[in-house]
């Protein structure tokens, strides 16, 4: 065989090997070239901005926010970042529904790069705590499906729901003021929950249009991205571009979902009643849903569709690799043998499902790959405890390495000091704590105004079904 033929054969073999090794990355680049989209390159690569690592994600209720939190937890661990976590007295939330304060943060988890546990938003406190270049993100959900989920999930905790005969959503929406008490415990689940989470006044009269407009504008000023749960994958595409992350950084598995038997479909007329009762939440959703689609249009619908396609392919590959070549089956808590993977159950009337890893996962898997699969499906409460332990260990190691301090001549009273990032840098070494319990509801606080958001804009077509419930 001539040298020329040998050379061509070697080139062909090398090309095939490269394609197989990169799992289609070259296809992505070629398709991006033809569509005029930015290439899906991975860090480190020449010309790429460094990944942004200082992020506040306001975790709202029943909006797929647990799935998003898991994604951020894993990103933080991969990049050796510090996640602010609650003190043990607050459980796994920042003493919600009390307004957030830095006193709710475990001292081993400051100064943080990322905050993502449930809280009632307090812009001033967060700005004092976080670096100046922090990007604020949150997520909203369509009011009708969200309120049905809240009514189902918190039916045994929220008094406004408990006093409704036969647990009837229809009966509540027919006469909400008959059952609702704005000052009692857990009332934030029964009206304008998104507004409350964002720090607003959930009970502001519907006729106060000026307040509603000002509140939406403030949210837009503070938040660089407001995700929409119904278009979760499209929202993640915007997130990836905003933070200059890789495709691998936004892979996820759906968490904290109810079984179909725990859900109820809204009868005709109910969605309109939900929107009327939760008028502030409805205004927020309408504004930021439109905003999302304007942003997606600016990125280019073909490019967004391409990235969503690649995201779903990559997720399927990851899930199949973790679940023995098959897609995972949802299991009830009783069916899950590993207690670290059992999701918390709000009541006997609602079933929250999770996943169980195959027994033979360890065969041919590195310990790192096994840990990735475990963390990918780990429920919020358990993952918070694991992260707290690991950050506490790191904090103690770092503390032992510090030089001894000179003794003071006069004793000063001990005060808790919250560390602040001295300047706008990408990441600071983390610091951990001790584990805490499960569900978190504190005392009720009066709603306050003020809030958040700076958001680019976007427009519709539903993402994957079943992500939220």
Q: Mind describing the biggest β-sheet?
A: 5 strands, parallel
Radius of gyration: 24 Å
- Oligomeric grouping of the chains: single chain
**Amount of beta strand:** under 5%
Protein topology:
Layout: H1 3-21, H2 25-35, E1 55-58, H3 65-78, E2 83-84, E3 114-115, H4 123-129, E4 135-140, H5 143-153, H6 159-162, H7 169-174, H8 176-179, H9 193-197, H10 209-222, E5 225-228, H11 232-243, E6 257-258, H12 270-277, H13 279-299, H14 301-322, E7 352-353, H15 367-376, H16 380-400
Question: What features would you describe in this structure?
Answer:
It is a single chain. This protein is mainly α and 469 residues long. Helix content is 40%, strand content 5%. The chain contains 16 helices and seven strands. The protein has helices at residues 3-21, 25-35, 65-78, 123-129, 143-153, 159-162, 169-174, 176-179, 193-197, 209-222, 232-243, 270-277, 279-299, 301-322, 367-376, 380-400, and strands spanning 55-58, 83-84, 114-115, 135-140, 225-228, 257-258, 352-353. The strands form two sheets. A five-stranded parallel β-sheet has the order 2-3-1-4-5. The longest helix is centred in the middle third of the chain and has 22 residues, at 301-322. The protein is globular, with a radius of gyration of 24 Å. The N and C termini lie far apart (64 Å).
């Amino acid at each position: 065989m001539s040298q020329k033929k040998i050379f061509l054969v070697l080139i062909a073999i090398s090309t095939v090997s490269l394609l197989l090794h990169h799992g289609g990355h070259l296809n992505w680049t070629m398709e991006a070239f033809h569509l005029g989209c930015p290439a899906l390159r991975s860090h480190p690569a020449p010309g790429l901005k460094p990944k942004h690592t200082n992020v506040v994600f306001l975790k709202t209720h029943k909006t797929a926010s647990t799935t998003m939190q898991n994604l951020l937890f894993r990103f933080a661990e991969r990049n050796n970042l510090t996640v602010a976590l609650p003190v043990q007295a607050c459980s796994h939330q920042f003493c919600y529904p009390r307004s957030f304060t830095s006193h709710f943060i475990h001292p081993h988890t400051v100064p943080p790069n990322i905050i993502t546990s449930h809280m009632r938003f307090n812009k001033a406190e967060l700005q004092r705590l976080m670096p100046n270049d922090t990007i604020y993100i949150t997520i909203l959900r369509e009011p009708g499906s969200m309120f049905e989920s809240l009514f189902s999930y918190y039916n045994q905790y929220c008094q406004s729901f408990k006093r409704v005969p036969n647990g009837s959503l229809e009966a509540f929406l027919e006469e909400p003021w008959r059952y609702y008490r704005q000052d009692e415990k857990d009332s934030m689940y029964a009206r304008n929950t998104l507004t409350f989470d964002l720090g607003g006044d959930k009970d502001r009269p519907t006729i106060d249009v000026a307040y509603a407009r000002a509140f939406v504008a403030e949210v837009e000023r503070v938040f660089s991205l407001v995700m929409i749960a119904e278009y979760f994958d499209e929202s993640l595409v915007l997130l990836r571009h905003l933070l200059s992350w890789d495709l691998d950084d936004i892979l996820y598995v759906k968490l904290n979902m109810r079984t179909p038997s725990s859900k109820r479909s809204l009868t005709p007329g109910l969605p309109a009643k939900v929107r009327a009762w939760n008028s502030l939440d409805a205004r927020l959703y309408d504004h930021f849903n439109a905003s999302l689609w304007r942003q997606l249009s600016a990125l280019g619908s073909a490019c967004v569709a391409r990235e969503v396609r690649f995201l779903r392919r990559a997720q399927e590959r990851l899930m199949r690799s973790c679940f023995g070549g098959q897609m995972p089956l949802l299991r009830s808590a009783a069916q899950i043998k590993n207690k670290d993977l059992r999701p918390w159950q709000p009541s006997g009337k609602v079933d929250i499902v999770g996943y169980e890893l195959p027994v033979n996962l360890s065969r041919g898997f590195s310990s790192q790959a096994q840990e990735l699969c475990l963390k990918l499906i780990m429920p919020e409460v358990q993952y918070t405890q694991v992260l707290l332990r690991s950050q506490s260990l790191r904090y103690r190691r770092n503390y032992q390495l510090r030089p001894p301090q000179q003794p003071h001549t006069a004793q000063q009273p001990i005060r808790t000091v919250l560390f602040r990032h001295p300047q706008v840098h990408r990441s600071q070494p983390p610091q951990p704590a001790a584990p805490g319990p499960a569900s978190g509801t504190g005392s009720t606080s009066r709603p306050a105004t003020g809030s958040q958001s700076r958001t680019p804009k976007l427009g519709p077509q539903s993402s994957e079904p079943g992500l939220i419930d």
